[in-house]
Amino acid sequence: MRVARLFGTAFSLSLRRALAYRTNLFFDALLALVDLTASIATIGIVFTQTGLLAGWSAGQMLALTGTYALITGLRAAFLDPSLADFAQQIRDGRLDTYLLRPATSVVLATCTRHAPLALVQSFLGVGVIILGLRALGSVPSPLAVAGWAFLTLIGLLIGWATLVGLASLAFWAPRLSLGVLHGAAWETGRYPVDIYGQWLRRLLTFAFPVAAVTTWPAQTLTRGPDPATLTLAVVLGGGFMVATMLLWRLGVRRYTGATS
What we know:
Layout: H1 2-19, H2 23-46, H3 58-78, H4 80-83, H5 86-92, H6 96-99, H7 105-111, H8 119-136, H9 142-168, H10 179-187, H11 198-207, H12 210-223, H13 227-254
């Protein structure tokens, strides 16, 4: 509850700051709309040539695109602002600000600076999901919706774990920046992992589990929940969370800041 209150307070402060620049809301919404429109247009072009893409119909692809936009918007709103200059904070000692406060340092350092306007992308993503379900002409069962929500949450946690894990490498190499690599890998989540070759599909399932971030939630929503998929997602999410926390603690022990 303490972490939840801290998170809520940080979001409230960020929202007040964001609303002071309301013009940004218009441009953020416009950019998100253009991006999603381009994705939808690409799907439309592909499915003028084929009825299925690696077993995925047009409606299912729309559901996946919407899920990708939803999670990407949540990541951009709640995670990216805090981690954008994480390596610089280590270099100049500003990380001390978080380590000396009476709260969980990893939460303070990675989740307390927000960009609320980025949630526009998430709202538009929900609209694309609804569009995809209408194209399928079916209403998902309550169990499928619950499975989708659960897997979406796990996908967001995996996104947090991978971002924080890569950022934590800055404790050993402060000038190392792997943000571009993470962004390129994240972009593969726009499409189902089934379209990739076997070796890349395994890489995107176990090494950088994009499958758990977008493919599995969309698959569960449109085809129904699969116990094996849910179990594997929980194992992957738990494994990445544990590994990231261990890496963070090792990094903090190594850290020498301005107050050291």
